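Re: beginner question about structure tokens

> Can someone show what the tokenized structure looks like for a real chain? I only ever see the sequence side.

Sure, here's an example I had lying around. Input first:
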Amino acid sequence: MFEFSPTDWQAISLSAQVAITATAVSLPFGFMAAYLLVFSRLPGKALLDSLINLPLVLPPVVVGYLLLLSLGSEGWLGAMLAKVGIRIIFTWKAAVIASMVVGFPLLVRSIRIGMEQIDDHLIQASRTLGAHWHDTLLSVILPLSGRAILAGASLMFARSLGEFGATIILAGNIPGVTQTIPLAIYDYTSTPGGDRMALGLCLVSIVLSFGVLVLNEGLVRRFRKGVK
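And the corresponding structure tokens:
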């Protein structure tokens, strides 16, 4: 059996906290971004799509460095936040932001695919019956996107749980403060004799990710029964 230290348990707890927070905060923004990409007629949708998906093709370290330039004490956004007493870098909030930026494209893509599969006749019927765009959004698009939202949330949670590159740049690797499971594994692999504990944390990460996938599948099945 693996005997985790208090620091290891803090890393496990923080990883779950960061992944849950990043997913919960990103969900409404991801839904609206997908809605704009699928149903709106805004000019420059291709540019918006490219900007959303940019973190997928950039190395996570590059994403983290760009965030550091923006949110650091010398950055434009970091300086503004400092004036109101808010500090982001090298805190757990920085890990949340890094996970949000890196996982957001997966969330939007999953929801977008679900929205693109909605029958246009249903949307046209709601508009013919006099429904405003927000009524159609809440009564037609949102319910029919339920499975896609669950899938996107699961993907983002798993991605946030395994985020390393952007997190270590923006939040640092401070045990008990910003050290998540991937960062703790990195420390153990760099320490002589730490392979056993690194393996233990790897198994914890696998169990957490697998549990999320199982929960997602169960929720999807219930959602299908509810729709029927």
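Each token stands for a local structural state, so reading them left to right follows the chain. The domain at 6-227 is CATH 1.10.3720.10 (MetI-like fold).
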